[in-house]
Design goal:
- By secondary structure, the chain is α+β, with helices and mostly antiparallel strands.
- 57% of the residues lie in helices and 14% in strands.
- It contains nine helices and seven strands, in the order ααααβααββαββααββ.
- A hairpin with a 3-residue loop joins β6 and β7.
- The longest helix is centred in the middle third of the chain and has 48 residues.
- It starts with 17 loop residues before the first helix and ends in a 5-residue tail after the last strand.
- The structure holds adenosine-5'-diphosphate.
- The site of adenosine-5'-diphosphate has 22 residues, from α7 and α9.
- Adenosine-5'-diphosphate (ADP) binds next to α7 and α9.
């Protein structure tokens, strides 16, 4: 039966069939020599003890020779590579992920040990990148926490000064409160992301009207956009049923709308559009804000990534990472179009549960 565990062309057994021919040839030759030896002993009329000992010593030598040859073959074929693997495994167990074991043969002559070595190298590389991600994550979290903690500490110290006016006290207390809110948002985002990434949240998928939900989210940010004198335009159906988890999707709309308000300068416009297709419902949030270049767009879904540092204090770079993870869980999709200085459009597509169409501007 064909074993499909290995890629095509890979040798699945290291047993050298030629070994039989080698042993057969050697034993044939050795028994020839043995016969010659016996003839020589008989014609030389050596004494009985020597006549017995010489063939024993001869076959002993032959056995030693064959054992050394076999040992060398086993060492070359199995022990050498396995010892290298054992050494590499113990280095990885000790936390060294820079280990690389070269394959024994060139790719056209790979056997299953070469495949094992290649897989091992791949596994070590994966482990290394997970370790880097973990270290990066910890240093990012520490960095993000340091700033608000420093703000709280400094303003708390200032508040102790006796000569403060009421306005100053009020301002310092407000700064402390804002830093505390920032810390609390950071921690709750990390916890949410952690739960989502470890699949500890099972989406409760049901059919519900996404238009109502998006409108509710927009209204929540009314004060923020009105304060910046941002115009808001909508182009949505009366209702559109999606098959999704309502509370998880709320995170998506909140993030997209709050980002649009945050990155749009005063006097700008935010447009929320929604349309239904046969099996999907799409909601897009566009703004006339600062936009992003192609390089930034590649990273916006990475944890802690903030392309526009001028607003870095208003966020923690986890929002879009959360959005992406939620949409992965709900079989949704997100696309981004953006141009520096002109604005951005984030379009979210979700599986539809059925739509009630009634166009409205
Ligand atoms: P943040 O907490 O910084 O908003 P996000 O994960 O929500 O973090 O976004 C990551 C980065 O993507 C932001 O820091 C910003 O640089 C960029 N970004 C997100 N939304 C927009 C937008 N509407 N316009 C311009 N840049 C955006």
């Amino acid at each position: 039966m064909k074993n499909e565990k290995y890629p095509r062309g890979v040798r699945e057994s290291l047993f050298p069939a030629s070994l039989f021919a080698i042993y057969f040839g050697v034993l044939l030759l050795m028994s020839g020599i043995h016969s010659g030896l016996i003839v020589f002993i008989n014609t030389a009329a050596l004494n009985g003890l020597i006549q017995t000992l010489v063939p024993i010593a001869y076959w002993c030598l032959v056995a030693v020779g064959l054992t050394l040859f076999t040992r060398n073959e086993i060492k070359k074929t199995y022990e050498g590579p396995l010892h290298k693997m054992a050494e590499a495994t113990s280095r990885v167990a000790g936390g060294d992920f820079s280990v690389y074991v070269p394959t024994i043969h060139t790719q056209d002559r790979w056997d299953y040990l070469d495949v094992m070595i290649v897989d091992f190298n791949k596994m070590v590389e994966e482990l290394g990148s997970i370790e880097t991600l973990k270290t990066d994550f910890i240093s990012n979290v520490s960095h993000e926490m340091k700033t608000p903690i420093a703000i709280i500490k400094n303003y708390a110290e200032l508040l102790r000064m006796e000569s403060l006016t009421e306005e100053q006290k009020e301002e310092y207390a407000r700064n402390i409160e804002a830093a505390a809110v920032r810390l609390s948002n950071l921690i709750s985002n990390i916890l949410k992301l952690n739960k989502l990434e470890n699949q500890r949240i099972t989406p409760e998928v049901e059919a519900y009207d996404v238009c109502r939900q998006v409108c509710d989210c927009i209204i929540q940010y009314e004060n923020a956009w009105e304060e910046k004198e941002i115009g808001l335009e909508t182009d949505m159906e009366d209702s559109a049923l999606v098959e999704a988890d309502e509370s998880l999707l709320e995170l998506v709309w909140n993030n997209l709308i709050s980002n649009a308000v945050k990155f749009t300068p005063p006097g700008g416009t935010i447009t929320v559009k929604q349309f239904s297709q046969e099996d999907t419902v799409t909601v897009s949030v566009s703004d006339t804000g600062c936009g992003m270049d192609a390089e930034s767009m590649k990273h916006i879904f990475d944890k802690f990534y903030q392309a526009d540092t001028s607003h870095s204090r208003e966020g923690n770079g986890l929002g879009l990472a959360l959005v992406k993870r939620v949409l992965e869980l709900l079989d949704g999709d997100i696309r981004v179009e953006s141009e520096p200085g002109k604005g951005s459009t984030f379009s979210v597509t979700l599986p539809a549960a059925g739509t009630v169409k009634q166009e409205e501007d």
